[in-house]
Amino acid sequence: MLYLVKPIFLATDAFIWLFAVMLTITVYKIKRQPNLCKKWSVLLQSKLYNTCLVTLVFFCIVALTDSIHFREPISETHNTKIVYSNEVKSLFDSLVTPLGIVKEQSYSKPFATHNLNKSYEKDSAGNYISFYNHLKINEKNEPSIGELGYEFTIKWFKWAFISLAVLSLYILFKERNQVWHRRIPNYLTTLKKSGVLHSIITAIILFTIFACLINISSCYHVFGTSKIGEDVLYQTMKSIRTGIIIGTITTIFSLPIAIIMGICSGYFGKTIDDIIQYIYTTISAIPGILLISAAVLSLQVWLGRHANWFSSMEESADMRLLMICFILGITGWTSLCRLLRGETLKIREMDYITAAKTLGVSNSSILYKHILPNVMHIVLIITVIDFSSLVLAEAVLSYIGVGVDPSTMSWGNMINSARLEMAREPAIWWSLAAAFVFMFSLVLAANIFADGVRAAFDPREKNNAGAS
Amino acid sequence: MIKYIIRRMIYMIPILLGVNVITFILFFMVNTPDDMARMQLGNKNVTPAAIERWKASKGYDKPLFFDSSKQFPENISESLFYNQTKKLVRFDFGLSDGGRDINYDITTRMYPSLAIAIPSLILGLLANISFALIIVFFKDSYIERWGTIICILLMSISGLFYIIAGQYLFGKLWKLVPISGYLPGINAVYFVALPVMIAIISGIGSGVRWYRSLLLEEYFKPYAITARAKGLSDLQVLKRHLLPNAMIPIVTSIVAILPLLFMGSLLTESFFGIPGLGSYTIDAISQQDFAIIRVMVFIGTLLYMLGLMMTDIVYTWVDPRIRLS
Predict the structure, then answer these.
(1) Which of 381-440 (A) contact B at CB < 8 A?
(2) In angstroms, rounded to a whole number, what is the distance separating the alpha carbons of residues B262 and B299?
(3) What's this model's pTM, rounded to 2 decimal places?
(4) What are phi and psi of B271, to 5 degrees?
(5) How far is CA B127 from the centre of its chain?
(6) Strand order from edge to edge, sheet including A6-8
(7) pLDDT tens across B167-185, in order?
(8) Residues of chain B positioned with their CB less than 8 A from the CB of A463
(9) What is the mean pLDDT of residues B190-207?
């Protein structure tokens, strides 16, 4: 039973939820500022950017539900004491339940009914016979895709009808000061104007694809199985969390350093500027990947020395993930810092700063109230641009051997093992394909959205557009 | 000019020192020589005496920064930090933890790296600039629209996929080129062709987008509008006015990365089994050979600083408005 589960708190879980809370507060604050609100609504009225944002949010929701961990009680309890299973599960695992539970022997093709490789067994005469073992997942019942589709469509329409009914009741109630037959069309027009309608449609499409995949997964492995017989779709969906964590938690570490250093260096000048400039020139002088791998290697030795600090494999793997985010953050703040310094140097000479100074406003107040809001667009643009490159960097780091723990499911680890699998005969392509599809959709959505953010918030872009 | 170069070189010293301190902290303090010895000798069943012997053979048994038991000049010169720094400054890299001569390895492995890096840079540049020019020339048409979309699609694919797909298609399926390996001399072409092609393709998305934005920035400048107003064709404006001006940031950015070409490409080289400096670094990382990594960090930093200096000098050459001061 759910209320008996024993929650497990992992460090990255705390950080990703912290990030989610911070994001919510930021959204709330933006909503109260009309000038920012206007820019965002222009951005979200564009269908393309709207779709991308919804896709990103969808990935984030998967990552967030995958960041609530617990251990389930084992059903046969001894005496009155509850015994918990050793397996750490997440809320996401329970939500997608048929997925990822059945483990096969080894490789199997997508939608296969039998293993890819032959099994050997001795028969009664003592000869070895070879045969293809039936997969466990569809051994008992093997519905055709048509049957599954029919079942799914009926379920889908049932839920669509229920939610539509609830939604219309809500609208009828909300627009109650209108004539009754104008209520729904009116509400839809306002939704359409603000772009929310488009978001809802995108969300429904994404959710349908997701639900469809889960539904099929009860009888088939949509993306086949990996070497140890794990469902590849499950692996790649669990990898979403790793990718999102690398992309977001890294910014938690790098943003404060970059912002504080950048604006202080630009605003105060003189010695402070010299020191900060020296620090970031030194760090950016070291080739990035070498610095990161050197730091990760040192850290690996350090973690090995303190192996007794962690009670379980999950915790030490999780600590390693967090440390990689930390290292990426510590090494990755320099470019943003340089940009912020340049912008602050420009803003410092503005009249309103001089006015504030002559009025006796304190330095910290000027930095917080006048300079910070005026450089925030750079922070936003760079953060969104960096997100996709961080997700891509994770794969490269895992390949080099300085990435996440091999036991953590990540796209980098999947690609890494796929390299050898592609060399087999026949080539095992599905693992690579699954990682490709999911990673590509996340990075593409992030890249396009970053373009939109830049177009909306970068004053230079506006000049270009205005002149054309 | 010479004065400026000398000043820049003096400016490099504190930065190199800073880098050296960072690597020293990472390799000798976070991760002590004892840990290194234990790792090299095998984690379990190592006697303290064996650790001491290993440290003494590497010279790692000295105190880190300061030897308080000695008098002034010796107390610093007998420290590990001083000795390690002295070796790096003299370009005497010594032996790797695996026992190979690092200087020899670097000088022999440099050429395969360059054999990949130089063609990828030149051909990649040609491809990027020509595509960017096409996209800007057909501004506000479906070619621009689709061009930018394709760029963003190409950009969103991890470089690892290009390499794996390229090896599978060209190496395994069509058997046009060997999957991996390297031969010196003219035969290197067979081995270099695929890595170079993949390097170009994986860089084309972000490259074209960047060059396009540089060209577009010039596109609306008054001189370009004047040129078009005079009746020059779009092609002429692009060729005679936009391209030379957009070349300034392009040339300087290339000069900045020119010295780093020696370092090779980590991914390409290790995937294609090319015995360059990139795969050397990767091997060092996977074998946890800290001596090599430390040297590579030092060389990388040096080359980066060299690149920055060259950028500044080239700036004055391509853009006479800028004076060095």
Answers:
(1) 388, 392, 395-396, 399-402, 411, 415, 418-419, 422-423, 427, 432, 436, 439-440
(2) 10
(3) 0.90
(4) -70, -40
(5) 20
(6) A6-8, A69-73, A84-90
(7) 888 888 888 888 888 888 7
(8) 220
(9) 91
Angle value at C-alpha A386, between A382 and A387, nearest 5 degrees? 120
DSSP string, A340-409: HHHHHHHHHTSHHHHHHHHTT--HHHHIIIIIHHHHHHHHHHHHHHHHHHHHHHHHHHHHHT-SS-TTS-
Q: A169 to chain B, minimum CA–CA distance in Å? A: 42
Cβ–Cβ under 8 Å, residues A288 and A331: yes
Could you tell me the end-to-end alpha-carbon distance of chain A, in angstroms, rounded to an integer? 63
Interatomic CA distance for residues A64 and A244, integer angstroms: 9
In single-letter form, the type of residue at position A194 comes to S
Looking at chain A, which residue has its C-alpha nearest residue B28? A298
- What is the residue whose two structure tokens read 């920055």? B308
Residues of chain A with pLDDT under 50: 1-2, 465-468
Q: Is A388 in Cβ contact with B35 (below 8 Å)? A: no
Question: For residue A466, how far is the Cα from the chain centroid?
Answer: 35
Taking residues B201-213, report their average pLDDT: 92
Q: Is B322 helix (H, G, I), strand (E, B) or coil?
A: coil
Put simply, the answer to whether B305 touches A399 (Cβ < 8 Å) is: no
Give the 3-state secondary structure of residue A6: strand
User: Closest partner residue to B164 among A299, A432, A439, by Cβ?
Assistant: A432
At residue B69, the pLDDT reads 67
Looking at residue A466, its pLDDT comes to 39
What CATH architecture is B106-324? Answer: Orthogonal Bundle (1.10)
Question: How close A298 comes to chain B (CA, Å)?
Answer: 5
Going through B95-185 in order, the beta strands assigned E by DSSP cover none
Residues B267, A399: C-beta atoms closer than 8 Å: yes
Structure tokens at A320: 């390693």
Domain with CATH 1.10.3720.10 in chain B: 106-324
Phi, psi angles (nearest 5°) of residue A130: -115, 145
Closest by Cβ to A290, choosing from B43, B159, B297: B297
Closest residue in chain B to residue A425, using alpha carbons only? B172
Residues of B in contact with A301 (CB under 8 A): 30-31, 35-36, 39, 288
d(CA A188, CA A52): 22
